[in-house]
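Usage example:
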Amino acid sequence: MNTFGNKVTLTTFGESHGPALGGVLDGIPAGVALDMEQIQRQMARRRPGQSAITTARKEADMVELLSGVFEGRTTGTPIGFIIRNSDQHSADYDNLRHVFRPSHADYTYFMKYGVRDHRGGGRSSARETAVRVAAGAIAMQVLAKMGISVCSYTSQVGDICLDRPYHALDLAAVDSNAVRCPDADTARRMIALIEQVKREGDTVGGVVTGVIRGLRPGVGEPMFDKLQARLAYAMLSINAAKGFDYGMGFDGVGRRGSQMNDAFVRSSDPGRPLRTATNHSGGIQGGISNGEDVYFRVAFKPVATLLRPVSTFDDEFEAVTVQPRGRHDACVLPRAVPVVDAMAALVTLDLVESVSDKV
Amino acid sequence: MNTFGNKVTLTTFGESHGPALGGVLDGIPAGVALDMEQIQRQMARRRPGQSAITTARKEADMVELLSGVFEGRTTGTPIGFIIRNSDQHSADYDNLRHVFRPSHADYTYFMKYGVRDHRGGGRSSARETAVRVAAGAIAMQVLAKMGISVCSYTSQVGDICLDRPYHALDLAAVDSNAVRCPDADTARRMIALIEQVKREGDTVGGVVTGVIRGLRPGVGEPMFDKLQARLAYAMLSINAAKGFDYGMGFDGVGRRGSQMNDAFVRSSDPGRPLRTATNHSGGIQGGISNGEDVYFRVAFKPVATLLRPVSTFDDEFEAVTVQPRGRHDACVLPRAVPVVDAMAALVTLDLVESVSDKV
Amino acid sequence: MNTFGNKVTLTTFGESHGPALGGVLDGIPAGVALDMEQIQRQMARRRPGQSAITTARKEADMVELLSGVFEGRTTGTPIGFIIRNSDQHSADYDNLRHVFRPSHADYTYFMKYGVRDHRGGGRSSARETAVRVAAGAIAMQVLAKMGISVCSYTSQVGDICLDRPYHALDLAAVDSNAVRCPDADTARRMIALIEQVKREGDTVGGVVTGVIRGLRPGVGEPMFDKLQARLAYAMLSINAAKGFDYGMGFDGVGRRGSQMNDAFVRSSDPGRPLRTATNHSGGIQGGISNGEDVYFRVAFKPVATLLRPVSTFDDEFEAVTVQPRGRHDACVLPRAVPVVDAMAALVTLDLVESVSDKV
Amino acid sequence: MNTFGNKVTLTTFGESHGPALGGVLDGIPAGVALDMEQIQRQMARRRPGQSAITTARKEADMVELLSGVFEGRTTGTPIGFIIRNSDQHSADYDNLRHVFRPSHADYTYFMKYGVRDHRGGGRSSARETAVRVAAGAIAMQVLAKMGISVCSYTSQVGDICLDRPYHALDLAAVDSNAVRCPDADTARRMIALIEQVKREGDTVGGVVTGVIRGLRPGVGEPMFDKLQARLAYAMLSINAAKGFDYGMGFDGVGRRGSQMNDAFVRSSDPGRPLRTATNHSGGIQGGISNGEDVYFRVAFKPVATLLRPVSTFDDEFEAVTVQPRGRHDACVLPRAVPVVDAMAALVTLDLVESVSDKV
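Running the assembly step on the lines above writes:
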């Protein structure tokens, strides 16, 4: 189904080349003043055509709020919104009407539904993430009132890896370059790699690192809806995502327990009477936040759409060669960053709103 | 909440040292003959005390079916079952009543609920996974009727890594050694490492690799309930799990798209008219199975309970030193394998049962 | 939350005087040819201003489909749609900005949310049912392909009661008069009563009877999601609905079991090998359809908005007198009929799509 | 599915003649002291064999708590419990193994699942309501801490109707007679009727009236999860229930709006600054509690099991005559009262726990 969340839910709809995409964000508390410009700023971070290293498709990506806000404040009723598609170039896709592109969702949609909107990938297009970013921008405003912030950045492109941990970086610098890596030198090398890969008609993957700050202890449900499980679910639902880990993650499996445990230290903050001296755990124990920063990584594959002729099959299972003519990203990482932000914000707000555990 | 799944749901309850744990498995179709011995065989794979490299706690882990099965067959009504706790040694935990052990869930449960069952971790104990294994064993029997199988194995312990891919291994050999690694030589080295770590009073992590075979194209929901997203959610809900990836996963981010795409080849199987020559994708496109094997990895941290004195704090935030006296695993990997099997089976059955997409 | 259903879900949003209302209908199978004119015909049955006995508000109530349909057929992806508000007359409501009208939702929304859109009742307006009717019209088209139909009609207005059971009526005649009662003589008397009540500035309630035909045995979940329980839930979620019963309902409680049991008779239809000679049960046993017609009643109160001055209180709890100036129905029954149709269709399709009980 | 509720959920399992029935009650806040005797007192009110006018089946109906309670207090983890079946007399049902009794769920279960546990109705038996009563008794204890109480009583048996409204009765007298009608004279006549019907080998239906007191304004979700919609859903999920209404319900449809509106009056209670002079609405406006008492009715049919020979068909669709030999109620109303209590408590607690609407 197309609904995400339990207490705060996002339901999305829309295809890449239909009249509009949209969403319904439900469960947002009443009385929150919404800053529409902040929403559009997040949209601009995901928007195609934002820089030389992203696709040339032009979309205004204006979020049109239809309900749930009255005189600038949320009312507690569902927030419905749409985002019109404008620069569609649907004819670009006529040659793909019957084609199954390799490592795309063309074949699987066809096998599942027997019918598909072939234009730009239809529902499987990453254009759907525009709706997530809009909803996430609202969630981030609600979280901000609780002192909670979400911030993610590009930490790897191809084999170029940012080798410093998040707490050694200036996260305010994420948007200071086109690739959204807060280290200027690494960013330069990442951009050079993306430009080279683009010239080769190829694509390259990478990693986004996300950080959630300001969570009080107690957020997350201890069994299936562990904070990390909800984050993993959210992140793997993003197009092209291939992996998730948190805290020391995959890098921690080679260590000893004695190296990984986080010793407690006393704190003067009454809301979090104990802190930890290290944070190998990534801010979560038993599925529940412990008051430290939550940090995680999301792996993105190199996108499947190459700017080269491709030999493949059509829906009568005959061999064909296609030359993709759409406008595509050589590397989705810069545009994936606001999507990771959005999904992290939606998960966090959902779990924060679900907390009412003590009598 | 303590319910997993949409169409096939598992609701679990129970603490490590209460009278019993149990579950309700709902949505299982009627008319399936259940093999109780197969269920107990899966239980035996997770059971403590099964080998020299696992904890010495002795539990029969007998699954007592209470409903949903009549004359050996499922009836379509919910399958309720309990697993009695027998070898509880609750007094072992008296010294921990007021203690927050580092990197355990003691502190987070206390901050969330204000009260906790301290005995053996209570609800946060991995003993809860016994319920998952029982339910998963039933799910595996239903899947077997559809030609679908789930198999996982230990592919890394500490820095000892099985370097061959799953399709180059004999997965029938998973249970031929105590660590559940299908390569005998690697298994020997893993076991030696676990024994050494245990002698040092320390713990070590690792990786489980899972494989799902026999899925027809079309399983998985394209938006939030992508097959990989549900798997990630399921795996990160397991105690000590820190990461998940599928297909080429984190290892694929450094490659080019041209190296990663899986070219189609024609197939004579009418249910899957196209196959792929390679399977970098891990059997999923756009969240939907494409008919190839689904494979994935789950990272497990070294468990936090060391067999050494530990300095920490109590629930009045005073410094204390504790000597854990419970019986613990130096490495959870061998016992995590059947849990990964179970969660993979539950996810798969849930999504297979949800398929009714065409008119 | 604003989502209805399990397998086929409708999520709605929108206020009476915002830019638009809308919905997301998810879970509709792929490949269904949609007749847009049939959708608009259902909309016209609910539309204000359709006859002399309904409110004079004029709304085109055009359903704008935004997704989920490609070249006239459903694709299996969510169907998003909006209905623009046009004839809003928001200024009519300025005098109500701070007023709690008796027996309206003004006070309860204020107490729950602390803020409300006062214009025309905001989210609490029955205008929201336009979205349900649009979604229900789509559901009815899917059901029609399965041989299932839903039909409801006005069976009581005030104390004027249609005294014949549904099977003695020509249900094709429902729309032959303004009050949607299939008996011409009773309809005349109902209309006369509504006109009289309207002249008095008052309102009157009534009953809608609904019939679902063509259900095969086996639809409905036996425990909480009994077919009748889902219908009751759906019907009581409609504005102004006060009661629900099915089969002999409240009228059956005075009878003896020996009078009420429905004896089986053999049938030549292999899909329903037994029929019943009578149908006091209303087509359901143990929450599951038995293949007979499902029939039920929904009670609607006289709406609270009178065309008279009303003494009440404002949001500072001071006494005020208000003269409602909006345009209102003296009797909602004629316009409630398509809403009951819609909700019955959504419940039925949801439960039909959930059926996969045997292996 | 067999799970009820959103924030506070009850999952049930078990058949009439299996080893045990049980449930998992999830979402109960931590720290509530549970009175086990109060739970057993509610069980005793539903128990068979409690008086001369109920079935002679003897069941201790001991609730065995398995989890979620530590040292007498809830821990916030799921409360699992079982109720063993003891006095099963399964052989009583051998003659019914292949028989479809009229107006029972035998045929519909068979058509849905192809297999059924024929003993005592299996899962369709009203014995399942024992689980609801146990869970409801816990919910009532949590509600009591919030000043909320639930009370229901028999208001009609056959054509004998208690003609005074709930607020003119002494609800403390509900259990002062076997039929659970708080008016002694009416109760006597009801009991006489049940005894006469029983002598005739017949059954008779009736009505339960329920009252929820102490709800603050703001409980209930305004769209589909209206308080009345959730109550209707809960009540129609009870075996033999045929109808639900609230406030003036079906009796109000013949009135004028001017007679039905509830005028506000000022109140000195800061939590409910306005009260209403009358309460025709039944304490709910727009799906949300207004702070007045919520009252409702539930219609129960005469149960289908007669103590007479019955002509019917078997599962090869051949005519048979059966003589029911089980032990049955001539009137379920006395035992339905605690079930209505339980479901009302579960609905109320679920919606109260879901409230977090303002920032």
